[in-house]
Amino acid sequence: MPDSVPDVLIVGGGIGGLGAALALSRQGLAVRLLERAPAFGEVGAGLQLAPNCTRILDDYGLLDEARSLGVVPDAMVMRDALDGAELTRLDLRDLERRYGYPYLVIHRSDLHALLLRACERAGVELITDAHVTAYENSGTTGGARVTLASGGTHEAGVVIAADGLHSTARRLLVDDEPVSSAYVAYRGTVPAELDRVRSTDLGEVVVHVGPSCHFVHYGLRGGDLLNQVAVFESPKALAGQEDWGTPDELDAAFARTSDFVKDGLPFMWRDKWWRMFDRDPVMTWVHGRITLLGDAAHPPLQYIAQGAIMAIEDGWVLGEHVARNRGADGGVDWDAALAAYEAVRPEHCRRVVTTSRAWGELWHLDGTAREQRNVLLRARDTYDYAFVDWLYGPTALTPDEEPPMFTPIPPASAEPVAGGVPAT
Questions:
Q1: Catalytic residue among 218, 341, 385, 392, which?
Q2: What would the pLDDT profile of 172-184 be if each residue is shown by its tens digit?
Q3: What counts of helices (H) and strands (E) characterise the chain?
Q4: 218 catalytic residue (yes or no)
Q5: N or C: which end of the chain has fewer CB within 10 A?
């Protein structure tokens, strides 16, 4: 075990772990972060950062750098994946005026590197090749301890488990497993000089919603890349096969979609795909001086693009409650800070996880239900924010600050359709 004992030990060097390390180091705490991989890094492509995240990046002094690395799009557009018709849109410039902060898209590795640099500047102790296999509370010191695969141990006043979807620490709180959606995501980026990009408006974040599939695209790195994501329900997964979501299923899943969508499939990476899992929400995240954060606590499906954002919010909220629960000597009342964190974050994240599931169902409708959904979406006013006010406003620090949820409108409530046109 190292000679020094930090105030905070964070397990996991992804976006959530780095965000929490930054938040707590800004409060003057000594933070040590353990990453199991031999080097820090992120795999993936684009991330969407809504105003509830860019607000926090601004508080950290990182928004200008993030903006310089990403793209601030003009609009978010939803289209029908079969016929390509526009269904609804958000004016993202007006959205920025409403919430005070921009909607930003950025490469995942660029955001991760930005947070890593900020942690280095803040003096976070960063340790790689540290695979944590066990967590326990320290009865004698009042803190907590982790054990590594190497046999080594680390102690701190509090341990934050940002150890992802397959969290080891979560087992202290609940005996559950990730939930398969039977959907899989393929990603790919297209260089700007190709015709595919030149014919695409990089100022738009576009999602094409289709039966059991959807396709997303938007510009990245100042418009140097077009990011594409193709998601579909795997027949092999539904049949219970182990080897599911494979490339042979990709093209078949989009056979009915528009030419624009199908023309994007050759640019998807075929050597890596992401099976989509979440977990059922849990409302208890704290076990003594050990707490969950990020995907360890609330892994979502990605339909409302809040996974990384929730993790960043978790760290910011915990940092704010550390600031509110300090004694005259500067010491942190961790029991109070963790209780305040647990009083507000699980409910918000429960809403996001369950809404993400429902939104995915809405995107992937077929037949009459698809036509009814399209009627409702076309009727929505571009400047109606009723469905995002609960999400994009300031991150709540206490339960009373959590805004009310929107009222769902079931597609079946739309007027009957005939040939895709509302009956009159």
A1: 218
A2: 999 999 999 999 9
A3: 13, 20
A4: yes
A5: C
